[in-house]
Amino acid sequence: MRSQRGVRPPFDAYLKGRPWPADGRRSTTALSPALTGGWVEQFAIGLRVPHVFWRSERYEDGTYTLWLYDSTDTRSWASADWEPDRSTYEVVQAGPRSLWGEVEAAWRWWDAQGRPGFTRFGLTVDAAGQHAWLDSPDHPVGARCSGGGRLAV
Fold it and tell me: pTM of whole model > 0.70?
């Protein structure tokens, strides 16, 4: 719901006044950022990686950077660069959360479950709050949300 959306700080607030990549840790990944960008993928990843919003920055040459931002006070962020015909992709991360690592782990979980579509997910709402599940309520996915709309991780 729109009323439950948090206020997103300006992107440069994540760099704490320093030029990019600020205090970013560089690494590479074999997981193509393109494999995380579909509707189902982002839904499944979002269930397992709370409080993160995504933005992609596309360039004239067809490449792009996928940006991930922690919407809580940690100011963690990550970027993953996509280029065609690559087998590894540059990643830069900063802050206490390793957002790309979390996204990669969530994508691998989704892949190991057989890449389920929307119809295999469900939501249970009860007096204790709400939780998403895969295939049945006995298989919860991600964090539980209390009645106040806050995710408990």
Answer: yes
